[in-house]
Amino acid sequence: MTLITLPYSPVDGDPEDISEIMANFNAILAVVNGGLQNDNVAADAAIAHSKLALTPEAFIAPTLLHSWANMGAGYNVAGYYKDPFGIVHLRGVVNSGVDEHIFTLPAGYRPVEKEWHRMDHDVSIGDYGVTIDTNGEVSYHIVIGALTAAYLDGITFIAA
To answer: Which of 30, 48, 55, 83 is the most exposed place for a label (fewest CB within 10 A)?
Structure first.
């Protein structure tokens, strides 16, 4: 097992006052952050947080196909992004499509295997949901009845 050791500890020996603790803390932050030389602990902490934070990319608006359109009325518009852990997130509510195929995700945003995300079950129409295929096709499927609206909010999967 490999251990990471730092050349300083937060408290080195028996400190007489808080200034020694703060000096050691700043020294540790400098090592962790690649040599920051800032005497302001709050600023060092903010910089350290920004270096360690994993910021996801912004949602990308897909090209909607086959007359699918964003529903509006306060619902999220269709979009997708991949977080720093390789998980793709979909959002939005779309309606008025004339074909099951809603849009296509680009390479790098597609699942390893075909995904089925069940939206709901209604006795009159059966199961319905959204599939994401390995070729990137995001499609709406319904057992009985007509295509209405596809709810993409909360759909996530691991990218290939």
So the answer is: 55
